[in-house]
Structures are given as C-alpha cells and as structure tokens.
Amino acid sequence: MHMRVKDRVAIITGSGRGIGAATAIRLAEEGAKVTVTDVEQSTCEETAAEIRKAGGEAIAIPCDITKRQSVEEMVQTTVDTFGRLDILVNNAGITRDNLVHKMTDDDWDAVMNVHLKGSFYAVQAAQRHMVEQRYGKIVNFSSTSALGNRGQLNYATAKAGLQGFTKTLAIELGKFNINVNAVAPGFIETEMTKATADRMGIDFEELKKAAAQRSPLGRTGKPLDIANAVLFLVSEESSFITGQVLYVRGGV
Question: Domain of 116: which CATH number?
C-alpha cells in the first residue's frame, strides 16, 4: 500500500472526536506519527488508543488551544517525542449559536478565541519548526458557514476570518516550502451537528434528511469525507497547491 504521509509528524487539534479524530486516524493509516490534542484528556486518549491498536504511532496531549503556553508546550512535546513537525491541522472549533440580538459577549469571544486565536497560536508555534526544516503543510478549517448562516454570526465571521488567515500565511510561508490551505466542510454528521439539531428542537435524522435533499449527491457528509480531503492537502500530491479554500460539501 502506498503510504502518502509515511514518517511525517502531524498535530491535529480538536482530534478527540468527530472530524478531528477521523483525520488523525486517517493520517496515521497513511504512515504519519500523530499528536492527538483536544481540551479533554479522555477523548485524546481514546483517539490515540485507536491509532495504536491499528498499529500506528500516536501520543495524546490535552491542550487548551486558547492558552498560548498550553499550545507551545503541546508543540514542543510533539517535537521532543517525534524529532520534527511536518503537518499542522487546525480543526479545533466550537459553536455558540444565537441570533444577533441575543448573542452575548461570551458567545462571541469564546468562538473567536478558539477558532482565530487558537489557530494563530498553533501556527506561530508550528511554523518555527517548519521554517527551519524548509518543509511544512498547514490545513485550517473554514466552513460553508463562512458564506453566511442564520444564527451563526460569530461562527461565520470566524470561519471567514480563517480564509484570510490561510491566504496570508500561504504568501508569507511559501518561500520556506510550506503549503497552507483550508477545507470548508458543509453538513457533516458529527456531535456538533447533532447539538445543532437539539438546539433547534428538531430530530437529527430529519436534519440529515433535509441536508441530503439539498445536495446534488443526495447524501450528507461523513467525517471521513473531510479526512480524505485533508490527507490530499498534506500529501506530496498537492505540493503546488497553496492559499486555497477547498469546499467539501456535496455541491451545496
């Protein structure tokens, strides 16, 4: 089997569950040594254990992405353990949905801090190692919500912000042979979208059905659909692609 990221060292933030976990597992299957990092120790351990059970290499490091020291220690532990750092996937995210007139300062700040400040801290710590070795792949997570989504003023703003963040990093880091791209998922079946259904007071199966009907492909996305897109963007196959936003949303 062709191992597309053999012996590359990867950090995937928010990889305790959902899309992050699927991405960590997928990269490990293709030969990467993975740092699983999330805010909760237990979920990190679960994903890392799954990777190890399948014969892969992984360490679990709990980390609050909104705290600079926590992020820098997580990156340093990764380098100390595996000897280098090649791939950073900024997947960690939260939602605090509300209409504009109901949105609180906390709703706004929490979402901005995780998506924007967290990605900034992770990139700043990771790029030092990537610049030194003249090699790196960074994938940030935007979203279809960046194009506007009712009840998600904070989330849509943060996800649009990450597109500008991605394009600027691509310009700054390109000369060091570092590719920086973003994926923008559409409706993907995860705990996060299930929580959205609960908040809206509708059955998750109904929400999935409605999303599938809107898609030209007639189905909803699975975490693996996103993981495969990330795998392409961190592999050698995409070495001439940088500063791009790849919408993975079944055509809608």
Answer: 3.40.50.720
